[in-house]
Amino acid sequence: MVQLKVTQVRSAIGTKPNQRATLRALGLKRINDSVVQQDRPEIRGMVATVPHLVRVEEIS
Known about the structure:
By secondary structure, the protein is of the alpha+beta class.
């Protein structure tokens, strides 16, 4: 099963409230914080909301 490693690379300060909420929903709290999520359409959509704030890597 493919998983996604999502890492926050930029600060959420100055972003829109829905983007900050998306980072929290992904489980990210600060810069360089990483979480591993299942590769599902819901997670891909959340990542697509904040592509300028996160880095995504696929893990097999």
